[in-house]
Specification:
homotetramer; about 260 residues; alpha+beta; Alpha-Beta Plaits; 8 helices; about 15% strand; globular; tRNA processing (chains A, B, C, D); EC 2.7.7.79 (chains A, B, C, D); tRNA(His) guanylyltransferase (chains A, B, C, D); GTP binding (chains A, B, C, D); nucleotide-binding (chains A, B, C, D)
């Protein structure tokens, strides 16, 4: 067959398995989302609809891929944890990275009109993704702590910055200057004393990010032990850094 | 800062550069498109609108990434050639694979209604992607020959198969049985003698696939030598296996 | 400088770090040692001097590389465990593999005359090496169990095989035939009933392989807590599969 | 079998093939040879016996591995070119790197007494190795040019430096100071005017390094075309940067 004389080119596709029995952390980020949020008029400091759309897309990815046991989202990024025993696509890195990034993107575009009914997409948004393998549970806990600490730091800054601009009448340059060198407690103080904003009462979605995980269906707990329990995906905006989150879910990292 | 005690987790992100000075071939394929085409009622053996949508998405990707010098599409797959000197994203494999797959997917979903105005997407389609590095021009020529030979073999089979079913009244099982063990010339003969179809007069898009490449704007050829010539992306359905295609474009693989 | 116009070729040296915080298992094997043992007249089923030479070379490698915490040898192979926190050569795989293989080889050739004073090397022996990263302690325990179980299976077979040949007067073909399909207990029985050999009383070096590990110097245990304790490398031929070995050394895999 | 329950640990051995149809450049370097040359009293600026030993070891490696078509040595390093079509060890990187480094080391130690009959090895020398894949002939030419240019620069510096010390009575600190900021022509001038040394008349081995390549046996050229011609390995100290070397050997990089 004519084909066979060329098919040697397949030999250049090198194997790219992720090390067995490591957790795979898949993270994606919006590509050039600074421009994207400007063009599409996202609200500052947080656009509720945009975050809901991210959560929706992430939930769809989790529904399609049962080996994802936990996800965390903030701003235009989302992290997904695949259980360490997963054999998804034989653990081929490019296959997993590309397929998950593609499905998330597809959901983001498809569900966009639900969250922005009056604002059609001006151009196609895109995301980049990567997989990071982690050997131990400790790394996974620290990974999610890293992201949630980042959410906190960014959100406190942004909340204060945009209060100075939107309510305080500062220019963005002035607001940056006001915040230069300030500590966390200074920003809390600015928010409260100047704008009567108690930071800790802001929407937990903004302060804590979005956590998606599977829970067993309540009715299912009574069902036969033999049947694999049905699960549903729940969305939380709670602390993921302290021990409580993990102690309450002792099987989360078990597989 | 709270963040810094966790940021060591970034050290697990290993470098993944593609070998310098090799051509990068990026190919993507529809994920579970057998089901997707069924659910969305694609016409057999070829759905013209669906192929046009693929071409549109591919063209958008090429417009965004000037280092893509050539692309080839058939069915639910598309191959993109990045010039060997590209330093896109510092040649990081995951970054390139995920970003290009994401942008293509985004275009596919965003432009879907243009080609299927009466058929809304029932669920989010996705694609998987991979990069294959090729050291030499010969490999690139053979790669595209491999894909176009594949197009030919598949299309001849499918054209004959669906003629037997749609016009010949065979079941799909009967049609498969009819074609078992047949050679290329047998299928031509079946098409012509039973259905008055001259295979070589079928739409070249189906027989040859879609080729996208950059051409200099005609008016631009007169412009100052110093200015980098403006280019436009053209769509062809011609032979890419024989020497002519390559001889006519001596600079295509030059960089 | 003339040099600089060519130095771009360094860019083709791609990074090859081993995933952080994983144990590195470095194993080397004799290259074509079947022929090597024939040419150099190794005794069957085990050549004591050759095993001592392997142990000597391995000990020298451990002395040079303090991050090796454990080693196991049998026949013409040796495995070395680098602690998971090692930053030896920035965890570059080729650098570690090549350097350790080279040093072992160098010792093997240099110390050869000590163990084979009347048998000069007929040609240069060589070894191949590889690094396997393991995420968890369980994998390390199972790795060493895998090697020691292999030692047992091979040694029981070889002990019986060579008894049949050397004492029983069988040809090698006959001895293979005798052993085909036999179980472990059958081999014990053959050894005992035909040759009065109690397998369990054979030299533990043959049955258990060689284990090298660091122990604190006894006198050092009284020394100041602040000083890093001096250690010496000890050679054992004990069971490494059961829990005892590991329970007695709770810090062995700690770093 | 006891073994099988542990043998899953083999799954952590990841594939590491070098990209097909690329040249593989294997380079090894002496490990901590500054100390090694001091302890073993190597002559400065060049020790003829040590270079001959390197050449001997390299020649032995080439004899064992017919897919090595060219080698270049200087000081304590050697580079070996494997032909691009080689399928040695299925192109597995660790296997090739470790085996070649091991064999070279083995030869170095084994043949040491031939070159240093009165100076036994004080401790085992070792080497590190790496493989760099190159896509094109141009890269290979530039690679060897890079090494030979390096040889020239180092040797000119060292020749002048040691003349200042050994014949000029400078301390090493003074000699370094004398040479700081000098150009090539300044060093030639120092050598000639102060020490009557015409640099270009120094032994070509020092100035050009050592080149090993295969040549057909002269008598063999008349032999049957069908027989694969017998070759021998020749040692040259000629220019490898200019075109002549390559033009005279048009088939050197052909496979």
């Amino acid at each position: 067959m004519a084909n066979s004389k060329y098919s040697y080119v397949k030999n250049f596709e090198l194997p790219d398995p992720v090390l067995p029995d490591t957790f795979m952390l898949f993270r994606l980020d919006g590509h050039s989302f600074h421009r994207f949020t400007d063009v599409h008029g996202f609200e500052k400091p947080n656009d509720f609809r945009a975050l809901e759309l991210m959560d929706h897309a992430a939930r769809s990815v989790m529904e399609e891929y049962p080996d994802i046991v936990l996800a965390f989202g903030e701003s235009d990024e989302y992290s997904f944890l695949l259980k360490r025993s997963t054999s998804l696509y034989n653990r081929r890195e490019s296959k997993i990275v590309s397929t998950l990034t593609s499905l998330f993107t597809s959901c983001y575009v498809l569900y966009w009109p639900k969250y922005f009914p009056n604002k059609p997409l001006q151009y196609p948004p895109s995301f980049d993704g990567r997989i990071v393998p982690y050997p131990a549970e400790k790394h996974i806990r620290d990974y999610f702590a890293w992201r949630q600490a980042d959410t906190h730091v960014n959100n406190l800054y942004n909340a204060t910055f945009w209060a100075l601009v939107q309510q305080g009448g500062q220019t963005t340059a002035e607001a940056h200057a006001t915040l230069r060198g300030t500590f966390s407690k200074d920003k809390h103080e600015i928010l409260y004393s100047r704008f009567k904003i108690n930071y800790n009462q802001l929407d937990a979605r903004y302060r804590k990010g979005s956590i998606l995980l599977r829970e067993e269906e309540p009715e299912n707990k009574k069902a036969s032990k033999k049947a694999k329990p049905a699960t549903r995906i729940v969305l939380l905006h709670c602390d993921i850094i302290k021990d409580d989150f993990w102690n309450e879910r002792p099987t989360l990292l078990a597989d």
